[in-house]
Amino acid sequence: MIERSVTVIGAGLAGCEAAWQLSKRGLHVDLIEMKPAKKTPAHTSDLFSELVCSNSLRSNELTNAAGLLKEEMRRLGSLIMESADCCCVAAGGALAVDRNAFSEYITDKIRNCGNITVIEAEADSIPTGNVIISTGPLSSDAIAGAISEVCPVEDLHFYDAVAPIVSFDSIDLDSAFFASRYNKGTADYINCPMNREEYEAFVDELSKAKEAEIHGFDDGAVFEGCMPVEVMARRGRDTLRYGPLKPVGLTDPHTGRECYSVVQLRKDNRDGTLYNIVGFQTHLTWGEQKRVFSMIPALKNAEFVRYGVMHRNTFINSPLLLDRYYRLKSDPRIAFAGQMTGVEGYIESAASGLLAGIEMAADVLELPHVDFPQETAIGALSLYVSSGSVGGFQPMNINFGILSPLGRKVKGKRNKNAEISERSLSVINQLLAKEVFQNEDNR
Question: What pLDDT score does 154 carry?
């Protein structure tokens, strides 16, 4: 008789997605989560799938690799995408969510699923039987110790940073304007311009502002996608103007001219009472954040409801340790999912949980694996993480560069990306005919 149960450790994005995919296929899941009794330094909520950094899931367009990955996940029955689409807030061409509503939706679905038993406890060992470990980049010391016993390789790490959030009522809208870049989509961002003098004074103060003490912190270990704004400022006076403060495509309606630099704010909740400062991940002290960020004219009286924080993220040497199903090569009953595998980003983490859950179900039900190919975003990500990196392994966002090329020239980058996406979604539709996708709720 087939043993129809799997343990999932960790109820973040990856863990909830993996548990959901397993449960849909008639398998019982014990989902072990240490909340609410214990939280990591980055978590504050008792809810599952808490978004600790930005509330944006990035582009929703199929000419962007992140948009393609999201659409693949929708077609594959992703719980994370179901929640995101239900709890979205206006963000132009991006998909952003009300973070509390997003987590509430997922928590309710998981807790009310008959095939999932939530065990509120801190895992301190790897159980027998099939298990997916998705404890995240801030795994507790207890489970980290257990993981080190099955992953005896050097500890890899980088540092991740969280951007501040301000209240809408405290933003000086006389010094700001609503717009989208190039008037593309709806005007969902609050744009806070600075002229040259204001920008240069801001960069000067930002470059020398006092940082919070973080044991062992090294700017060289910061993942580029989450580079603290003060680290960027120290790289050169114009670095921010080519990064998060890029003014291109934005015209100040007060002057009729393109801005010299622009700080953008994105809605952080559905009611629009909170906005996060886009690209302003930081590990400055809270006092310095208030002092320096208040130099931005539109934020001169800003109320900071959450300051930026910095924390260490850890991940395993996946190319050495994992196969394309995120399983341990040395012990295939154990799979990993989420950022600890070296995927970087909310959607990438959820996608790894989705794939790990589907392929684990195939193992348990003794069905053929789906074997998502490199023509798909979800498959390309797993193949890159498990074997595709060259040199030192570092976290990877989804990008078209890791998908199989078309094999022919297409004029224009957007046209090429659109054709890659069309091919990928065609492959996904074909894969949905595989047995592991059939009669899921009746297994």
Answer: 57
